[in-house]
Amino acid sequence: MTTPDPTPHAPLDREWIAQRIPHQFDMCLLDAVRQWSPEAIECEARLEGLGAHPLRAAGGGLGAVNAVEYAAQAMAVHGALVAGTNDAPKAGYLASVRGVNLHVDSIAASDAPLRVHAERLSGDDRNVLYAFRVVGARGAVADGRAAVVLDAGDARP
pTM of the predicted model, to two decimals? Predict the structure, then answer.
């Protein structure tokens, strides 16, 4: 994966990410963009403060299925990078996930940092298909495919 520098004077850190995805405050799960190209992105999540994680279960654990949300946020960041815009995030939603494999039961602090990979397989201005994988320090967490519908707030009959 090549690493073009989309913003030579600003790091691609949590603050940069939060300005480009709809998720704010604790729901912005990604801490950095490691590398990206028009076809793919790799992000990092440091997993600090899992005890207060917004997606934790009642018992305090973070189920591996939440890796899908990490991947969805990486896809949103990738969309912003490819669009080359600094505007507010466009409306969109995760339409479906397919072929999801959960390789562990839960995400633990010992998985830090998570590496979140998303590769654009196909798409146009309205729909995108991504393959994703999430890997932690202990190994694979989850992988699968996700369909994303863009500009959902602007859909016309």
Answer: 0.86
